[in-house]
Amino acid sequence: MSDVSTKSAGSAADFLTVLAEAKRTRDPSGIADAVPYLRAMGIETRLHDDELVCTMRFSEPLIGNFAIRALHGGTLGALLESAAATTLLWRALLDAPSMEGLVIPRVVSVTVDYLRTGRAVDTHARAIVTSAGRRVARVRAEAWQDDRERPVAAANASFLVG
Amino acid sequence: MSDSRDDSDDARASRDARDDERHDDEQAARLRRIDDAFTKAIPYNAWLGLQTVEAGAKGEGRIVLRLPFRAELVGNPVTGVLHGGPITAAMDAACGASVFLALREPLRIATLDLRIDYLRGATPGVDLFCRAECVRITKQVAFARGTTDQGDPDDPLAVVAATFMVFRDQGSVLAEGMKRS
Predict the structure, then answer these.
(1) CA distance A80 to chain B (A)
(2) Which chain A residues contact residue B75 at CB under 8 A?
(3) CB atoms A73 and B111 under 8 Å
(4) Least confident residue range of A17-21, B8-12, B85-89, B93-97
(5) What are phi and psi of A4, to 5 degrees?
(6) How many whole angstroms separate alpha carbon A120 and alpha carbon B78?
(7) Mind listing the domains of chain A with CATH numbers?
(8) C-alpha A140: how far from its chain's center?
(9) What distance in Å separates residue B22's CA from the closest CA in chain A?
């Protein structure tokens, strides 16, 4: 336990430095590297036409059904939640006058709809903030592979932001 | 007490002990087969490090998986709290496994939707237990409920409701490993 808290305390300062740098350069690509789970999953956070897109690079450990080579549904849920959370964080970063008082969104609930089989290729996700209050924000996220018009999964999520 | 009665009591006691032992061995072997089929053979479940710690009797549709804490699964580097992703994925796996165990024959299933409510953040450094139960199976759809806790089932950190498509015309890839379970 003490080992873990020391580690997280160490990376806490690093993480805030990464966020400050992302805000300064208006480039969120460093955020994914600073979040252990996103880095481990091969998830990238990039801007495409001012929209934040999370891309999950395909790798073998993401497979859930080896017979039809389909992604594990959980990886799509994780990608959608990541897109929702990083989109909120990115918005908060851009809106914040300074790094003081920046609140990292905390997830309250996620509902994932699985629409199509996730194939063994790269998967992208984006999120739209559907309502943003002082305390709660609601986000809709979609994940797609080759065709943005044919999502493989979609999610609605609520976050505490205050 | 006569000698003969002593003997028969002893004989019965040792026979009971042997039966218990055999029952325990069978249970352990069944749990190993379930663990091999659900966690070791499914790449992402193996990556998460999932372990089967309990499974309901045949047809009961109940399972408990352990998700060992590891630093790679952290989502908030400031607090050290786990990302929701691995919890969602582990609960998807547990709910799916509960449906699979409830089926009379090994059929292919796929998650339709899954809702997870995070009641609190996971305490850093502590393993998670993903408990799931299949509450109903219809011709085409199965329903599962589950909770996540860190050792005390009465203090869950997440609750889940999930539905699954049941493909009556397709066998499961897990059939081979599971046929005797």
Answers:
(1) 9
(2) 35-38, 85
(3) yes
(4) B8-12
(5) -65, -45
(6) 33
(7) 2-160 (3.10.129.10)
(8) 12
(9) 34
Residue that the structure tokens 């009556």 belong to:
B168
Amino acid at A3: D
Q: Are A155 and A140 in contact (CB under 8 A)?
A: yes
Amino acid at B151: G
Three-class SS state of B169 = strand
In three-state secondary structure terms, A156 is strand
Q: Which residues of B touch A60 (CB under 8 A)?
A: 43
**Residues B32-41 as b or e (16 or more Cβ within 10 Å = b):** ebbbebbbeb
Residue pair B166/B109 in contact by the 8 Å Cβ criterion: yes
* DSSP single-letter state for residue A98: S
Question: For B145-165, how does the pLDDT look when each residue is reduced to its tens digit (9 = 90+)?
Answer: 999 999 999 999 999 999 999
Structural domains for chain B: 3-178 (3.10.129.10)
The pLDDT tens digits of the residues spanning A121-154 come to 999 999 999 999 999 999 999 999 999 999 999 9
Indicate if the alpha-carbon torsion angle A81, B35, B144, B142 is positive or negative: positive
User: CB of A145 within 8 A of CB of A123?
Assistant: yes
The verdict on A156 touching B (C-beta cutoff 8 Å) is no
- What ipTM does this complex have? 0.91
Answer for the pair B111, B96: CB distance below 8 angstroms, yes or no.
Answer: yes
- Report the DSSP beta bridge partners of residue A55: A44, A124
